[in-house]
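User: Okay, second chain of the day. Same drill as before: sequence in, structure tokens out.
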Amino acid sequence: MKKITLLLLLVSILISCNNSVKEIEVDRKAGEWVKTGVKYSIGSDADVAIVKKMLSSHVSLDAEGVFSSIGDTLKYYPHNRKSSIKMDVNMLKDYFSQYDSIQKNILYYLPYNVETWTGSIVQVGAVETRFNKNGTIEKDRIINKFFIGNDGLVHTIREWNADW
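Assistant: Same drill. Structure tokens below.
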């Protein structure tokens, strides 16, 4: 009888200790946009998916696929120019026509939001290798920031040379 009572007591204790832990996602803000003092927060994987789809089309030299994530035009700031380019699908097709292939080794995707801004940003670090039809090879280490509007489309890309 003592064994049964002891066993029931142990089972009761074990059952009562089985507290379920509920995971709560907290919207943490950190960092600072210096000009205004607003904070950053981590963005969504949905935004990363938009950029992944776009980059997959890019390495496939599929301008139409790239622009399915953009809309009609894109404001593009290349790392080797002082001003932006307003790019459309035909300009991208022309750009792709000089290459046999493009390889992109993605290092990371970092989605984030900035307080008071509409939309979001996905920062991507990558090593891009472009194989020209003339036989030359171009290789760049690049950091891109993809600015995504509330409509789920990329409106601006800012690019930096990250020659590390």
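DSSP finds four helices and eight strands in the chain.

User: Thanks, on to the next one.
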